[in-house]
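User: Can you help me understand a structure? I only have the sequence.
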Amino acid sequence: MSRQDFDSSSSILVQDIMTRALITVNLSTTALQIAKMMQHGGIGAILVQDSDHPVGIVTDRDFATKITANNMSFDTTAEKIMSSPLITINHNEPISAAAKRMTSKKIRKLAVTENGKIIGIITSTDLVTHLTK
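Assistant: Let's start by predicting it. Here is the structure, written out as tokens:
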């Protein structure tokens, strides 16, 4: 797949391929609880909130790079393992903008916003899945 193939998808917006179902936890949720939520939901990321304000994200990669690599306890809280600040993209941006932001930030998941509120998540898998259709 070439860059031209990707750029031709510029009329496709983030909101067209994002996932709207979100699971959120608070800062004190443990790594074990988060892992069980991810397993049960078949997902790779959970948003972290503080007083109903999104402040970070815990991803499957956080488990590998923070918990496992540093031999942290499964009782470690979301606050200590989350990636923060939360990196976002507006729902009406083209998917090429999402891909560029993921590449520049070296991440694979973006929270999607509308009028400053988190309404979904878009992942690198979403982008690849769309491009292979």
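Now, to help you interpret it: The chain is about 40% helix and 25% strand. The mean pLDDT is 91. Let me know which part you'd like to focus on.
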